[in-house]
Every structure is written in C-alpha cells, then in structure tokens.
## 1
Amino acid sequence: MANEPDLCSTHCDLWHNIDKLQKEIIIYERIHVLSNENKEQVAISVKTESSLRYRNDVLRKLEDNIERIIERLQQNKAPAVAFDSRTSWQNVSFSADVGLKLDKDKSVSELRFDSINSTTRFALMLSLMSECYKLVQSNTFSTKRDIYYRDPQLFGSQSVVDELADNIACMLSVPRHHLHLLATSKGCLAGDLSFIEMDGNCVDCSTTTTGILVPSHVEGLTNIRSEAKFVLIVEKDATFQKLLDDGLLKRIKNCIIITGKGFPDINTRMMVRKLWDCFHIPIFGLVDADPHGIEILCVYKFGSKSYSFDSHNLTVPSIRWLGVLPSDIKHLQIRKESLIPLTKADMDKAGELIKRPYYKQIPTWMKEIQILLTSGYKAEIQTLTAISNNFLTDVYIPNKIQHGGWI
C-alpha cells in the first residue's frame, strides 16, 4: 500500500472492484426485498406512498389517539398516552434487510395525567401533537427549534421538544419528518451530486470547497443527479475538510463524500439512505480504528436503538467498512508512538458492541474489534499522517478502492 497508484494508467482497474461490488449488492438487495415478509415496510422503504396518503395517515393516527383520550375521560379514567420504549436494547431485534427493529408492545412507556411524575410531559405532548396536526393538515413544515421558541417557557428546553417529537413519531409508527417537524442539519456533502431543494434552490455539490450542508428536508429533494461510482462516509469533519483540501475529488472525480461530524444526525442518515435509494452504488465508511468509530459506522449500517422504529428510512445494511481497519495498523507498520492506548471507556464500548443484536451479521468486523482489543491500542484517521501528510488522500483511499480493501 505504500506505493502511490497511477490512476491515469489504471483507471479501469480502479473501478473494477467497485462495479463488481455494486452488482453483488444489487442482487443481494433484490433477494431480500423479494423474500421480505413485511410488505408494508418494503412499500415505505421504496417510497411508493404519495404525500397525500401519508398526510391522511398521520392525521388519522393523531385523531385516533385524541379520541382514546376523550373516551377515557368519558369513562372517568385519567387520560394517558403510551408509546413503545426506545431506551432498552431488550426491546430491539435485528432484521437483515432493515437493521435494528423496535419490537412492538414489548415494553411500553406511558405518560399519565394523574401521575405527578408525568403530568407536565403529558400536557406538553398533547400540545406538540396539536402543533403537528396543524402542520400536516396545512401541508406546511416547521423546525423543532421554531416550535421551541414559540413558547420557550412552556417547553423549558430544546431537548424536551426533541424527545417529545421522537416519542410522538414512535407512538404513531411514522418517520419524524411525516409530522412535518424538521431539524437543522449538521452534516456536510461534497462531490458529484446535484439536486433541487423543496424551495426550488438548485444545489451543485461539485462546486464546493468546504462542503454543502445536508438539507433539512431530505425527503423534499427532487431532480437528484450523479455519475458517482461510490459514496464515502467520513466520520469526522476535520478529515472531511482535509480530503477536500488535499484534492480527493480531483483525484477520484466520480464519488460523493459525506460526513455527520461525529455521531450522525437524522438528516445525514436520511441523506445516506436517499443516495442509496436513488443510485444503488456502493457506500463505504471511513472511521477511526476504535470502538466509537465502529459504533458510528454501525449506526449508518444498522440503525440506532432510539430510532429503531424508523430504521427502514435511515439504514443501509450494504455499507462496507473501508477503513481505518485495526488490521491496517499492523500492515502499515504504524509506530506505537503514533497510536493511543485503549481506555476503559473504549473497552466497555467494545464489549457492548459484541453484545449488539447484529454482531453475528458482521463476523469480519467483529474480528477487527478483537484485533483492536488484543493490541491494546487505537488509531484515529489522522494517525495516517504519521506516514506522510497526504498519505490518506494520495495512497490509502485510492489503493483501498483499487484493490477492494474493504470488509
């Protein structure tokens, strides 16, 4: 890997493994779609429902919940709302086609008007449900931040609005954006990609030198175009910026790079899924060779516990791990002085990952975790600069792509 590839003379070789992988992934995805027993989730995942249909569905579900509250009042019972708990791994199972799934009615959280511990949250949830109903009915959108600032004394903090919005989406079994509540994005995009935003703004990600902010309304994007051969997810913004500064997009023109700037927000995860749905090209992850980097890549691939009720809109199970692999550290002969000793938090996180519902699906990834634990050291992506300043852009990524160095 130490020798820099001549991309001009080996252009066909560069894309050979990418094209082969793309065909394998498409065949794999078709098999799972055809054999999937949950036809409703397949329909949702391929976005066959019209806007009007989902809006009517959300309105009906909100009305049903309010009717149940009224019925309890008529029966002289305390009003309450209930939703599946999103806080325990015991409530989450694994499906190869969508990733993590929230098991219905296994463990339920309840907000009751007659409970001193939940009276306030119950009232706030009804207030937010009312706001969502108005937004969906009028087919308008609002950010969660705007909702909070309409009455900051009522909600107390932005995090309260965030949690309530997610609980309402979970209760109704709908994606959060179907409530017409949007969140400000933190992720960035660059590369061979263009699209039109909901407000008619035309965006060309190939012209940026610092990255384009991921749109806050990913589902509203239209006229999405790209000739990219693959998507590269980058864990950190600093690495994303370095790849741009070092000219990765000039070196490998037919690609899209995206970063969630650490643990990804929902919009970034939706954007990765959107790119997969639109183009069905391979998606690779570039993360730190440590348990936290691996967890972040698993979130893109399989989903998260708290959003397991919406995994079919947020995950891409076909994602591959490009680097930095713990086994790369030895192969590249990186000096120990450039590595970082694993902390107790790292060890605990690694132990937790091995217990996740999807661990049996990624044996090669789990083998890399064992290599990490055995060595006792971790490596950040920036560690590769110990070899040379441009090693990541000029050698590591091109060689990985040319020779199929992903798992």
## 2
Amino acid sequence: MDAVEPQAVTAPLRADAERNRQRLLAAARELFAQRGVDVSLDDIARHAGVGVGTAYRRFPNKHALIEELMVEKLEELGRIARRCLEEEDDPWAGLTGYLEQALDLQCRHRGLKDVLFSSSEEHARLAEVRARLAPIITALVERAVAAGVVRPDLQASDVPLLSIMLSTAGDFARDVEPELHRRYLQIVLDGLRPAREASTPLAVDALEIGEFQQAMSRWHRRR
C-alpha cells in the first residue's frame, strides 16, 4: 500500500503542473502578440491566472518563454519565404508576396518584430532560425534583380530594414487604422521597381551583412 499511495498523490500534481504550463504559454502568446516581448514574467503569470512562483517553477526566466514561443513565429516566417521562393515562379510576385505576408504577420504580432531584430547574444536559438531565413531572402532578392523586375541596386540587407520601417508605421497606427501599413508598403513597392532615366539614384549604398549586424547590435545598446 505504501508504494501505491505516492502515485495517487503525485499524478494529479503532474497534470496540474502541465495545465499551468499550458496556461502560461497561452497567456504569453497573447501578450507577446499584443504588447511585444518586453512584458514581464509577472505580467504573464497574472494574465494566466497563476501565481508568480508557479510561473518561475515552469520557466526559469522570460527568455525561456520567448525562445519556446517565438521560434514558432520565426519558423512560420521561414515557411512563408520558402513558399514565395519555391512555389512562385514570378520573381516580382515572389519578392513582393513575401514582403506583404511578412509585414502582415509582423503587424499582427508585435513580438515577432521584436525578435526579428533582437540581439543574438540574448537568444541563441532565435539567431539560428534567423540565420536560416537570411539565404532565402537573399535568393528572393537576387532572383528579382536578375529578372530585371526590381531596381538593380536592391540588396538583401534592404529587406529587413524596410520591414522595420513598415512595421513601425503599422505599430504607430494599429489602434486607429490597423491596415495603414499597406499604404506605405505600396509606396515602397513602387520604389522597388526598376529605376528609369528620370529616377533619382539612391544616395547611400546598402549595408553589407556585417554592417547590418553591427548596426543592429549598437541599436539594441542604445534602447
């Protein structure tokens, strides 16, 4: 009898622990989407309706939650990029389709924008997933340039910076006009068309990959 009693007591505790873990994950998904990844673990615990101590027992810190949930969103972005490259034969439709879908996803989920431009030192797993995304974006851009459907000076490193610009516009107006980012996306897409004789040349060269990473690191230190 003594050997059976611990099982009767501990099995429900394991089920309760898993329920609390799922409640915390659901709360974190919602808050990360609404407010970004700057929310605290205490906020997540309150939103989940569990104690703060329970939250820290399930997850050692907020970074563990961010990595568990936001890897999913980055992988979703990667699937979008691969579909646009592999299933869309038209180079212009492939590149612009990625920009449109990626921007929609970022504007619906503030946390995705945060982790797309987070520092590699903070989240190694997120950095690995981002690294797998980079060559797909490069292929989309290079294919469009080779086909002559975009201006020849467009570089792959322009794409994440355009995403920052456009998703920031989306954040700014999301409570008033949640679709406003589409207006600015169209302006940007018109600017990606091949340069004509009367077009103004770009004043500054695109960042090299190393320069982009350096700028991102310094940007985070300033925040």
## 3
Amino acid sequence: MKNDQLIRGSMAFLAILLSFVHSRAQESYSLAEAVDYAIKHNLNIKNTQLDAVSAEARIGEIRAAGLPQVSANFNLTDNLIIQRVFLPANAFGDPTVPTDEPPIAIPFGIKYAGSVSSTLNQLIFSGSYFIGLKAAATYRELAQKNTVQSKVTVAEAVTKAYYSAQVAEERAKLLDLNIGRVDSLMIETKAMNASGFVELLDVNRIEVQINNLRTERQKVQNLIELSYALLRYQMGMPPQESLKLSDNINNVNLDSLNTSIQQSGISYENRIEYSLLNTQEKLAGLDLRNIRAGYLPTVSASLGYGHNNGRDKFGDLFSSRWFNSSVLSLNVNIPIFDGFTKRYQIDQKKIALDKVKNSQLLLKQSIDLETNQANINIKNAFATLETQKRNLDLAEEIVRVSKIKYKEGVGSNIEVINAESSFKEAQTNYFTALYDLMIAKVDLSKARGELYSEN
C-alpha cells in the first residue's frame, strides 16, 4: 500500500514538473509560433469564428422552412354572457304572430366549449426556398472567408509587432555597449584630469554624453515594454504572461529573402479580399434570382385533426363525448399583379450586382497599386540596407585603425572611443534599415496575398 502511494505521489509530482517545464518552454516564441498563437487566441478571430457558427445556424434555419411544421392547440372557453341572435317575430312561420311584433332575442351558444387540435403544414414548392438552399452554401463560404481575412489581418499585425520588439531589444544592447565604453572613458579621463593632462571641460562633456545615453536607454526600455505589450495584445495573450522572442533578426538570410521576393508574382485570387468579392457576387446573383422566383406560384399542403365539445355545465364538458374533426387542404398561391413591386426590387438587385462588379475592378486596381508601391519600398529598403552595411564596414575599419594609432602613440583614447561609438551608431542604423526591410517585405507579402495561408 505504501509503495502504491509513493508511486502515485511520484507520478503526480512528475506531471506537475513536466507541466511547469512545458509552460516555461512556451514562454519563448518564434515568429511562426507567435502567429499560430494569435490565430488561436486573438479575440477578433474568435468573433469571426463565432460568426461562422452563427452562419451555420442561419443555414439550418433556411433549411428548416422546408421541413414539416407541426403545431398543437388547446382551447377552453367560458361564455360568461352568451351572445343573442335576433330573429323576426314570425321567423318560424306562425300566422298568429302579429307582423309588428318585436324581434325575438335567442341565446346563440352554450356556456362552456372546448377544442383540441393539431395541424401539419408542408411546403411543396417555393422558388424562393430552393434559391435559399443554393445560397446557404455560398453564405457558409462567405463566413469562412471572413474568418480567413481576420487571420490575415492578425498575422500582419503580429509580424510587425514581433519585428518591432526585436529591433528595440537590439537598440538596447547597442546602447548598453555605448554606455559601458563611455563609462570607461569617464574613468580614464577623470584620472587624466587629476594628473593634469586634460581639462575639467573634457570630463563635463563626457558626463553630458553619458547622461544623454542613459536617457535614451530608458526611452528604449520603455519602447521595449510597449512593443511587448502590443505584441501580447495582437497575439491575444494575457498582459501578465511571460513572453520571450526566440528568433534573432541578425540571422535573416538577405540573399534568400531577395530571391524569394523576386520570384513571386501577382495573382488576384491570392488576395482574400478579392475572393470575398467573388463570393459576394454569387450572393448578389442569388439574391436577384430570389426576387425573380417570386413570380412563381407557391404550393403547400396542410392536414388538421381535432376534437371539440360544448356543454352548459363545466363538469359535463369532460364527461361527455367529444366530436372528431379533420381537414386536408392544398394551397396554391399564384402571384398575378403586385403593383410592379418585384420589378423595382429586381432593378435594385441588378444595381447591387453591378456595384459588386465595379468593386472587383476597383480592388484589382488597388492591388496593382499596392504591389507596385510595395515593390518600390522594398527596393528602397534593400538599397538603404546595403548603404548602411557599407557604412558599418567603414566604421569597423575606422575603429581598427584608431586602435592601431592609439597603441603606437599617435592617437588618443578619446579618438578610439568616439570611433567605437560611431561604429555602434552605424550598427543601430543598420538594424533600423533591416527593420524597414522586414516591414516592407510584410507589406509586399500582404499585397500579393502570400502573408498567411490556411494550408
């Protein structure tokens, strides 16, 4: 017994430990994992998914109209004051009754009456119903595409927020290095000032530089916190949950990125917005057919069966015999003239269909413009990145030469530190250009409809 308890306790502890390790491991997210997390947790996507579920319920409602409709009715009536019917005095043909005698008021009815009945209604033919069934599948398709569109929007927002957080962290690292170098310079300069080799003004200038760097470092730290807060928001992650980024923006393969961008072309069908308009065109066409179907007759059948009874005493109502009744009817409704109502409705639906087609053409033009702009932006981003890379190489070479001069006694320590500071500034510019390139790549992928795919 003790061994069993020990085993169960060990297994429970192991399960808790594995759960803890798993939760800790999930704190670090790559870009793909962050997008996948957002697809599962973002509230906007959940709302569009709920709309898709609601669409299924709406489709079921449309189909239910063609199924048998059964209803039951129970009625119990107490005629508190029985209505009277007025008849002529000689209504029964009695010749002895004077012609000027007032009418006879005869009670018409009984005190208590009851009835129980049920009715079955079945739609046999309705043009609008059959068109509605065809529209149901299109309506489902529209709801699903709305969900995909929401996912594309969220994927774009998460990707840009991810890159923003990465660049903010790189800027913080560079500022920490700069602050460390300037602190070292401050110590050396104070020592040289104490020895009388430099003026106090040089110390004050370096102190101003340190203060500015520390102020900028605090601003960048605030930017990091804001970037992570934005990323959590876009991902649908609770604000208090830990989040780390596993991807490194320094590991981006620029040659591969440039090749993949040049290989891609424009396809309107890849854009979910264009696909949505195609579905809306189908719905507009079905809507037009639905109005035209109103000219067709509607056929339905109904079957009713019931019992009724009537007595002057309430107790006799349930102790006496109830009488059966049944009715079978076929209903045919043939529209003849509606004052041109459907004609004007058809004109409106035709206009709505033309507007959808115009929207398709406008969207094509918009996609062309977005793609051209994205292509130009990414070309500029590549050019800027190449320039910053050259500046980075030059700054690195200046640092190398400055250190050699300092070691040989022909340069100053300040010259070395300034060169290193310029080198790190060139690194900052390089990462900023890299961020602009990644954002331009996201915009181009979105313009081409390649940012997110369900496959």
## 4
Amino acid sequence: MTKWRTLVLATIGFNFSFLIWFSFAPFTGPMAEEFGLSLSEIGILASAAIWLAPFGRILTGWLSDKFGAPAVFAIVLTYVGVFSMASAFAQSYAVFFVERLIVATAGITFVIGIQHVSEWFEEENLGLAEGVYAGVGNAGAAGGALILPRVFGPGWSGPLFESNWRAAFFYTGIVSILLAVVYYALGEAAKSDAKRQATKESASFTGWLYTATRYGTVVLALAYVMSFGLELSMNGWLATYYREGFATDDLVLASTFAATFSVAAGLLRPIGGYVSDYVARTETDIIPVFRGRYREQWTFVTLCAIVVSMVGMTLAGLSGRVLLAVAAGFVVGTACAMAEGSIFAQVPAMFPNSSGAVAGVVGGVGTVGGIVFPLIYAAPLLPNLHTGYSVVAVLMLPIVMLTAWVFRPHVAERATDDGWIVEGSGPEAAPGSGD
C-alpha cells in the first residue's frame, strides 16, 4: 500500500459516501408529491440529513485512531447501503424518514478518510493531500445532482420499481455494500507499525477530551460550521431553491443549477489546502496583524470571503435573474472550498497523532451548520426565499471575531496547549508519539 493508493481509495470511498448522502436532493419534488410534503417539510428533510453527523463524526474519528480507518470505513458503508436499499421499499413517510436519517450518516466517513490520509502523508504535503481527498470527495454531491436524475429520470420504469427515486436509493445501496468490501480488502491503516501504534495509544478518552477543548480545535470546529456546514446546507437546499425561487419546474435543470455550487465547493478545495501549504512553506504573511501565523492568515481570509459571498447570494436572488443566482452560488461554493481546504490543512499539522479525534470534533461540530441553515432558508417568517442567505451571514460574524482572537500570534502559538474546561498534558506532548 502506498500513500497515493491510500489517497485514491479514501477519495473514492468518500466521493460515493457524499453521493449517497445527498441522493435525496434531486428527488425532493416527486417525494414531496408522493408523501404530501410542504416546502417547510422539505427543508426539515434537508436538515435531517445532518442530524446524526455531529455525534457520528466525533465517534468515528476516535474509532479510526483506535482501530484503523479501513475497518471503520467498511462498517459504515455496509450499514448505509443496507438502509438505503430498505428506504426504497418504504410505504409510510415515518419509516422512510428514519431510514434516510440512518443513510445520511454516510457523511461521517469524512473524518475516517481524513485520518487515513494523514497517517500516510508528511506535514508539508498534508494540505494538498487532504484537499484532494475532501474536494474530490465532496464533489460526490455534484455527481449525485448531475447523474442520478438523468439515470433515474421521470420516465423511469425499470426492474423492481416504477418510481425513479426508489430505484436510485436501491441501486446506490448495492454499490455502497460492494465498495465496503473493496475498502476493507485493500485498505491499510498506516504507513508504518510505529505510526499506527502512536496513533492508537493517543486514542484514550482523556486524550480526546483534552484535544477537543484546545483553542485550536474549538475555533477550527466553529470555522467549519461556516464552511462545511454551509456547504451541506446548500447541497440539500439549492435544487429546491432554484425550483421554487425562480419557478423552474424542470427537475434536471434545477439539479444542474445546484450542481454548480457542489462542483465549486468540492473540486476547488485542493486549492485551499495547497495555498495553506504554500504560505506556510514560504513563510508568506498575507495579513500583517497575524504575522508569523501563515496558515491562520489564509484561513481568516477565506472565512471573510464566505460572509461577503453569502450577502451576494441574497442580492443575486433578489435581482430575479436565475443565472446570476447560479453564478453567486458558484462564488459561495468557491469560498467554502478555500476555507475547508485551509482548515483541514491545519488540523493534522497541529495534531499529527490525534488527527482522527480532532478531525472528528471539527467535522462533527461543523455539520451543525447543515442542520440549522436549511431551517433558516425555508423559515416562513422571512419575506422571501432569498433573504435567508444574508441572515446566515450575520449569524457567522461572531465566529469570525472569535477566530480573529485565537489567531493572534501570542494566542495561536499555544492554541494546541491552552484551552477551555480541561487542563493538563495532551497526547501530542507524550514522549515517543512522533512518526
């Protein structure tokens, strides 16, 4: 097993996980018609896709450190596939809702792959490697939006199912189970026995609690709410937004519009990681006020870009021009990609022997945005479907201010040691914990 084969395996696994996670999004129209759902209930369904992710990511991050990524990844893909197939046969909305809730835990595979890749790559290339993994993986949402409604179109009449969305859920479930077998058979936990042992030894509850409460972990987790949480919310919502906000009745067209966001948020993510690696390697100061904290500077710039682009999303929507709104969505996706790549360049660099645990906290907390933001987009109190984006932008400002406080040089240099609630020595300081 080489680091490049590991990267390819993890990326394929996560890409498909993202596809099956948001496989419901292109079919909200026919599902709403069959189950009699309102627009607000569709918003709840989009939010529910994230409900189990926070705890699931925190748990699987720690489990990946403890037992190795291949075993954990395979287990998740297996049960996700089983419940995806089961959801294709659901006759009541209550049963369907619960089954899709379990399928949605496919998103927890993100931290498993982050941990797996970090076990094989050196620090100077971590940002790019993690960016490629997460970026191409996240693009699975775009793949689902582009591929699924075309393969399983409105006129679907295939074996087993007359409903296109039921067929999509059944056959993607089969692929998930097959991929689980491949990942378990081909995956190898770490590049050396020493690295595997160091990571395994750090996976204690006290070690997890310590790293979870450091300034660096907390602020990156909140930054991930702004970036990845936002991406999740848009992946589950934009097809509905373009259809309802601009009276676009064409399911394929609305899904294609939504996919432009997912393409930007996914495929451009490696650039965010590469820039973080570059400024750290060349010691380039972007913002003098954070002098010497190179990765932190780039992360802060990307978070500010998200806030500005979300306001632009509202303005584009209010213009009434759907193509302008699609372009604005692409800009938001680009800002998310830059921020996500930057954040997960920092995580394994800061916590090399606890990357799974920290990635679990950051990735888990980050998904909260995917739960909350769709409820804001679809809130009946808002004057229109375009206003919610600016409301979300305003809610992000306290996170930006906290990030600025932690990224100050004298605070940032101790961000892996100082923290809230728990004091003492963390696993990163343990002797013999290096590669």
